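Quick one: Immunity protein 22 from Flavobacterium humidisoli, structure tokens please.
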Amino acid sequence: MKKFELYWRDLNIGSIVETNWDMRSSGDISFKFDYSAESSENEHLANFIKFSIKDSILLGEGVEDDDLIFAQSEEEKKFLDLIVDTATDWYIINEKGDKSIILCPIFHEDDQITWMKDSNYF
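--- reply ---
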């Protein structure tokens, strides 16, 4: 099992233990960033993590309600700067100190996370 630190910009979001890998990696995260506190400085990021968890729960439950799906997609638009950003804001650092740029991770309930390396930075 590989271990990483997850960052958004200079903010350490938490420690990750990779439990599954393929094209996308997944694992457990121990948060250092208290997204439930919604500090004013990082409130947007905290709200995104909450949205991501909620969205992954709905996807996992196979929600097919068109109104709910539309509402989720409208809410997602608030976070496009975190999801689609072409900068190198999301990254992981392994135990050796090597940095890898990743696409925006997906946060799940029970402190689970999924991420994928950005192919533009291999």
